[in-house]
Specification:
Number of strands: 0
Strand content: under 5%
Order of helices and strands: HHHHH
Helix content: 40-55%
Distance between the termini: 30 Å
Radius of gyration: 16 Å
Number of helices: 5
Structural class: mainly alpha
Shape: elongated
Length: about 130
């Protein structure tokens, strides 16, 4: 959906991380890394996870931010993601030429239109500085 989309490009990876963080922030006020750091707790059942795949907790489960969301937060995230994907699909079906940077700006505008706070910058915690 982006004219300059290149899956192997590091900038593309950063773009999707930014989009994910903005969506998490719009629903919870925290980025993905902030959610994990504030919620992961070895003293709690299932490391504090509220939902995860498989019957037992695996390492891959504890590094996924949405696995720590409460039911209402997860529903809220799903709603905003669905609205965003519908908007993006509409842009593509109307043959709008949009670049990655445009999508970033459009997401900020979309969040503002939906009365949600848009993340400015990258958040206060870096995933690479933690052991996940």
């Amino acid at each position: 959906m982006a004219a300059d989309y290149e899956p192997s490009n590091k900038e593309t990876t950063r773009f999707f991380q930014s989009i994910q963080n903005k969506l998490h922030f719009a629903c919870t006020g925290m980025t993905a890394a902030e959610l994990i750091v504030s919620s992961a707790d070895a003293s709690q059942p299932n490391m504090g996870l509220t939902n995860y795949k498989f019957d037992e907790v695996r390492k891959t489960n504890v590094t996924v931010a949405k696995n720590y969301l409460r039911e209402n937060e997860l529903k809220e995230l799903n709603r905003i993601v669905n609205m965003w994907l519908d908007f993006a699909e509409d842009q593509a079906l109307r043959h709008k030429l949009v670049f990655l940077q445009d999508w970033d700006t459009k997401l900020d505008q979309f969040l503002s239109f939906n009365d949600r706070e848009a993340l400015q910058g990258t958040g206060g915690i870096r995933k690479k500085n933690h052991y996940f």
